[in-house]
Design brief:
- Two copies of one chain form a homodimer.
- The first copy, chain A, has helices at 15-27, 39-47, 71-77, 82-92, 104-115, 150-166, 189-201, 211-215, 226-253, 255-259, 261-275, 301-316, 319-326, and strands at residues 2-6, 32-37, 56-60, 97-100, 125-131, 136-140, 175-178, 205-209, 221-223, 283-286, 291-294.
- Chain A is of the alpha/beta class.
- Chain A has an eleven-stranded mixed β-sheet, sandwiched between helices.
- In chain A, strand 10 (283-286) and strand 11 form a beta hairpin.
- The longest helix of chain A has 28 residues, at 226-253.
- The first copy, chain A, is globular and about 60 Å long.
Amino acid sequence: MRIAVDAMGGDHAPVEVIKGALLVAREDPATEILLLGIADVLKEALSGMGEIPQNLSCRGVPEVIAMDEHPIQAVRKKRNSSLVSAALLVKSGEADAAFSAGNTGAAMAAATLDIGRVPGVDRPAIAATMPTLKSRALLLDAGANVDCTPENLRQFAKLGAVYVECVWGVASPRIGLLNIGSEQSKGNELTKAAFPLLQKDLAGFVGNLEGRDIFDHAADVVVCDGFAGNLVLKTGEGTAEFIVALMQQEMAADPLLAAAHQSVMSVLSRLQSRIDYAEYGAAPLLGVNGVSMIGHGRSHARAIASGIRAARDAAAAGYIAAVREAL
Amino acid sequence: MRIAVDAMGGDHAPVEVIKGALLVAREDPATEILLLGIADVLKEALSGMGEIPQNLSCRGVPEVIAMDEHPIQAVRKKRNSSLVSAALLVKSGEADAAFSAGNTGAAMAAATLDIGRVPGVDRPAIAATMPTLKSRALLLDAGANVDCTPENLRQFAKLGAVYVECVWGVASPRIGLLNIGSEQSKGNELTKAAFPLLQKDLAGFVGNLEGRDIFDHAADVVVCDGFAGNLVLKTGEGTAEFIVALMQQEMAADPLLAAAHQSVMSVLSRLQSRIDYAEYGAAPLLGVNGVSMIGHGRSHARAIASGIRAARDAAAAGYIAAVREAL
């Protein structure tokens, strides 16, 4: 497996991206990692990081897409950027997967325009991993397509079902439609029209589920439009941060708890990282005709490493072949 | 002030509803509470509750609308139900406000059909109170209108702004548009079209905000369609429950924390109730031409009391006159 990594993408690039790549290169000698970035910048960053394993290499590129650039314009203009180069390496077959923690819209655009779509997919989706009490669930779309058709949702369901079965190893995945009530009659125009399509086409369809059901693991795949999906992600993160902040206030005021303060805060921080999207490292772009993963812009080395591993695992599991067959 | 209370509405009716009504009647002799319900049932429930204060009275009705009945059909058919009777008392001026923790859709239908709408309002909205680090914010629509137009959102913003100013006493309330990014260009078709309407019409408009910004109190009023609003509420509740469940797991496994277990759990339960929608007691139906409050079906006495107080406060503050003038 060979993973093309955009070393210039993310709020803490290139240092944290390189550190994350090194973690994976050192633990897994069978995986080749190709760092793409401005040659001098990569060289300087790597100089303080100890011995460089043989399975990690660098390729200099002359351009970088910034976090706030207009996605499609940047991808069209900066053909030699680290972000676009990663996608082109997947397209040409030189790499098995691409990873970037940079401009999400640009990574999406590069994947769609340069790698292309799987035949039968109208709109690729961003799939986010949500923590659940039992394990994890895949939520898509998490923000790539804010206005969707029922047919888009049907395709997202297929893409997600194949992913969790093929990459996560979930046998007979259960698919739920994110909604505001469990009865079939509930919902807005989109979800009411999508329900019968999912019911007809997906053996594992379990019906509607609400935001709270995600955490109870009512489904392995949760399907929604990108507006709803992004809202759920951000609200979940916001609630978790809010609880930690309130807990800190409460504990400061309670002498009994002040004694256990350190222990409680360390538990809370573990919980928050379980909930924090960033810790899950990467969101696959599903429906793209090659493995492409995006990391959270705020990622540090640990999240970057987890994203590169996810890219490797999706490629190694043969997701693209499986999804081509299913669609 | 005279509040008509549907004593038969809610999962724990009539006992918890009556207990909640008694709490308010005893603490506030100036407020009259009229319980509506099946005469025998009310009589029996009240018999074990000590002395009945003079400002609490009962009125027997022959019918009850069940939690799972079809809202509009039930309201049209059961004209003498406790739920419809409460709305009719507001319409006739015999009561200043109605409160029901029963079938939400039916309470909405009775308010809209029987009390009517404020001139200039196309669709009344359910307004939910969200906790924030500083105080609280009003989120609307929380689920009454799943598909909305930009003009609906503009009206919701007006209804909410007048409410927090008039009833909560917030001077110059800030209004935010719930979205999936802060820039004006972000969002789906609905939010992109609503943005300029809100900007033009509301002096306190602060632009787009994301789910996480609600908790930071980025706005006093958060405007969205009912699908998005309900999703935010349920996801917030689900995340809070998830964190408490995880915390319990973690603490059981940690001997240092096991010692502080009791204290930590009591803090967590206080936090959860701050987040739990049920604790806020009631959601006003804004845009209705009279004060109508709905309580959460799961409400116990404390939440019922808080809902009745909210109904009283909205009536006493003259919300309806203020909103008629503003629209």
